[in-house]
Amino acid sequence: MFKKPFFSIVIPTLDEEKYLPLLLGDLVQQTLTNFEVIHVDGNSNDHTVKAASQFKRRFPLRIKVSKKQNVANQRNAGAQLARGEWVIFMDADNRLPNYFLQGIKYQLEKNPQTGVFTTWVKTNQQTSLSKTIDSAINFGYELYHIVGKEAAIGALIGAKKTATRKVKFNEKQKIFEDSLFVKDCVAAGYHFKIFHEPRYLFSLRRFEKEGSLKMARIAAASQLNYILGKSFEHHNYGYVMEGGKYYDRPSRSPFINLQRFIQKASKKQLTRAKQLLKSLGELLPEET
Fold it and tell me: How far apart are the first and last CA of the chain?
């Protein structure tokens, strides 16, 4: 007899053969097993779909291939197939502790007024920079909540299935379609909740690719415009959304290499670098 799942987990992908199996492996290990997975692939050029297919015997899994490579469209398509009471949208590069779904169910039972939610994150590295990033994300959520501009990153957003029938991710937005979804759910009468626990592991691969300095600039510009209520239909502020293959391309920016050197260099190396820069500066002609 078919057992209705409590959670429907929707995972949009594009060229994620490296990361998706790791997330699906985490789902295999969950202490709560009453869930289904809906994988909506954006017609990947790698073996993402084949990699996902290997898990069909481990839990209820449906795979849909969309010719349209648009994360909002893929999330909407997945939500339409959902049979669970709750729909959780996840990114393919998330990692989950084995108690994650059990913890979410506990929080929902404890907070029955919840209609849409996200959780605090924990970055997948334990460095001072990564701790700063996860603190910025977590307290950023709280700050948005205080000023009445609810927001969440698409790496993890949960909503009642009834909410996903009324509210859709805006497919025209280049970025912030995730926060706008939350905002629209609240406008439709659904209470937004930020759970501090359980936390999922948030991937830093974008920060590693772009460099945290560039990401800070992108975040500052885009978040300010979100607070001001502007549309993101015509501007992505440099935030690239090209799937997993994007992260495999070599970085060309010298600023990223400089940042990595500063992060990893010893005190002796930094002193030597300063001396070298000073020497180079002395060689430059004086301004007239």
Answer: 86
Question: Tokens representing 117?
Answer: 């939610």
Query: Same structural domain for residues 209 and 271?
Result: no
- Asked whether residue 265 falls in the same domain as residue 235, the answer is no
CA distances from 1 to 4, 8, 83, 84, 175 (A): 10, 18, 15, 16, 42
Q: Which domain holds residue 93?
A: 7-248
Q: How many CB atoms lie within 10 A of CB 188?
A: 13
CA separation, residue 159 to residues 75, 107, 110, 128, 181 (Å): 12, 13, 16, 33, 10
Q: Is the pLDDT reported for residue 252 higher than 70?
A: no
Pair 62, 32 in one domain: yes
Structure letter (DSSP) for residue 78: H
Share of the chain above pLDDT 90, in %: 57
In angstroms, the Cα distances linking 119 to 52, 134, 188, 194, 196 are: 25, 12, 21, 5, 6
3-state DSSP assignment of residue 198? strand
Structure confidence at residue 21 (pLDDT):
98
Q: Where does the pLDDT of residue 287 fall: very low under 50, low under 70, confident under 90, or very high at 90 and above?
A: very low
User: CA-CA distance, 174 to 94, in Å (whole number)?
Assistant: 21
> C-alpha angle with apex 128: 246 to 209, nearest 5 degrees?
10
User: How does pLDDT run across 95-142, given as a tens digit for each residue?
Assistant: 999 999 999 999 999 999 999 999 999 987 778 778 888 888 898 899
Residues 41/75, Cβ–Cβ less than 8 Å? no
The span from the CA of 267 to the CA of 253, in Å, is: 24
